[in-house]
Each structure stands twice: as structure tokens, then as C-alpha cells.
Amino acid sequence: MAAVSSSSELDKRPAVDVHDEPxxxxxxxxxxxxxxxxxxxxxTVGVFGLLIGNHHGRTENLFLVLIGxxxxxMLVRDQVRSRTSxxx
Length: 88
Hints:
Order of helices and strands: HHH
Shape: elongated
Mean pLDDT: 79
Low-confidence stretches: none
């Protein structure tokens, strides 16, 4: 006859394995996808806001525009992948 574990033993078990995710041992384990996207868009607006200023050359503007476009591309890619995560 096999030993039956009580339900209290199962309740003490963490939902996330500590060996896979070490942070689960000391606190909440999760992410902030919506806040991360909002921060990404705010940062992108901030990069384009840096175009306003007293630049004497166009080199600074070129780098700011390229960085801003790269940030937009990453944010759009993240949005598309989150919508179609089941298609990967």
C-alpha cells in the first residue's frame, strides 16, 4: 500500500520550481509587460525629443533618428509577437 500525502504538504509546495527560477524563493515572480511597453514608448518619444536643440551638425540628429527607429521597430515586433505567441 502506497503512502498518501496530505493536502497540507501540497499546499506548501511553491508553484514555481526554485531550481528553475531562483527569484521565486525570495519573492514575487512575474513581469510588467504593459508597463514595459509604456516605458519603451515614453523613451522613444524622449529620444525624438532630443532632436530639438542647438545642434550645429546633422550627425547627432542622424544617430538620434536611427536609434528612435530601432526602438520603434523593437516595440512593434514585441507587440506583434505578443499577439501571435501561439504561432511561434
